[in-house]
Amino acid sequence: MTAVGRARWEQHFASGHGFRRADELELRRLTEAAPPHPGARALDVGCGLGAYAAALAGLGYRTLAVDRADAAVAATRDRYADAEPRLQVQRLDFEDAAAVAAALPSAAFDLITMRLVLAFMADKPTVAQRVRDLLAPGGAWVVTTPLASNLPEARRHIGLTREDIGILTEEWPEGRWYDLDGALRCFVLRTGTRP
Ligand SMILES: C[S@@+](CC[C@H](N)C(=O)[O-])C[C@H]1O[C@@H](n2cnc3c(N)ncnc32)[C@H](O)[C@@H]1O
């Protein structure tokens, strides 16, 4: 895995670049996989320019969007100011255990999304455990990603390897996946059902 540092993302945003936007099909599949219920809370990790987090808020989730890049947080706040208070934005490095523990309550989120993000995180088993700690009973972790095996060699670092997928999918009572346009795969992993 090639680490893509924070400075590189800051540079990406500063040069006005965005990312592939979620289309109607992607959002429809998401609501089928993780239907929002009244009061449902979502956490979008690595929100980038905020379009996906804003879409989650639009679907009815009380959404917290976090990103470790200042430029991403600023852009999301600026672009989606009218979505507050349903959409909140905060700077947070999800790989920083102490920062996550200080900022986020345990067992509080019904949905945690990582869209085009997990491949860039170094310690995936720790990230997966952190997600389990933050999810409420019955909550879902939705990971949307390219697969490394479908990418040209120079871009494989932006996708998940077979080994990564093994790590991602183990230790969940329920899991499934589906494919989206643009060679993206979406994994839906669920904690035990609500009591
Ligand atoms: C390829 S972009 C995807 C943005 C957005 N999810 C989307 O689909 O448009 C990856 C984002 O993840 C963020 N990111 C990477 N590692 C992170 C971490 N450890 N904690 C929080 N954000 C992170 C980057 O700053 C960047 O905004």
TrEMBL record:
GO molecular function (one): methyltransferase activity
Q: What is this protein called?
A: Predicted protein
- A single GO BP annotation from the record? antibiotic biosynthetic process
Q: Which InterPro entries match?
A: SAM-dependent_MTases_sf
Q: Supply the source organism for this entry.
A: Streptomyces viridochromogenes (strain DSM 40736 / JCM 4977 / BCRC 1201 / Tue 494)
